[in-house]
Amino acid sequence: VQLQASGGGLVQAGGSLRLSCAASGSIFNRNQMAWHRQPPGKERELVAFVTLSGNTYYADSVKGRFTISRDRAKNTVNLQMNSLKYEDTAVYYCNVFPTRGRAFGQGTQVTVSS
Fold first, then answer.
1. Stretch 68-74: mean pLDDT, rounded?
2. In angstroms, rounded to a whole number, what is the distance separating the alpha carbons of residues 35 and 94?
């Protein structure tokens, strides 16, 4: 499996979810990794990325609520999402960053009920 996102689900506003992305070692060890999301009827947007050294970047809309991290032992990139809001509802995708045209795989649906 090159990139496999999981962990989505239905949660009430204010709740938490943890997304995980399993990556092959050849991808994980050579690239910055990111989570994107695509809300219903909207364009895909960058949520957060983590560099090879562990530095992180967040979109303003999630700053202070989401935490991205990479687990080198498991070759996974995680997204801890706290204080979820209705507007966080989207399909979440993981990918390398920048994507350089790399296709997005199957995402995981996050639905936040108000």
1. 95
2. 4
CA angle 16, 60, 22 (to 5 degrees): 50
- Per mean pLDDT, which range of 24-28, 67-71, 80-84 is the poorest? 24-28
Taking Cα atoms as reference points, which of 47, 5, 9, 49 lies closest to residue 23?
A: 5
pLDDT in tens, 27-45: 999 999 999 999 999 999 9
DSSP line for 35-88:
EEEE-TTS--EEEEEE-TTS-EEE-TTTTTTEEEEEETTTTEEEEEE-S--GGG
